[in-house]
Amino acid sequence: MGKVIIGNNVQFAPNVSLYTAGHPIHPDSRNSGYEYGIGITIGDNVWLGGNVVVNPGVHIGNNVVIGSGSVVIKDIPDNVIAIGNPCKVIREITEEDCKYYYKNYEFDVDDYKE
Q: How far apart are CA 65 and CA 76, in angstroms?
């Protein structure tokens, strides 16, 4: 099976699936039981929403949010939000994202440090 590399501060919501196994397409080869693995790499500070599927060979960059139910079949670059089936980048994560959701208050990470 392929190796899965998971960075620091990665969050997995329920039912996330990481698949590294591959199988031949031709039935004779597939019926032989031949199987191979292709690794997956997940960068630092990644959040994978519920029911996300990550397919073999995918690299997910740093500081990424993958929306619920997405099927990731291609590499995802750093600092983006990506969603869908197939998963596609919808926008970059910017300094504007330091504001609370639906409010105009700045988020200060120091307020939450012990």
A: 10
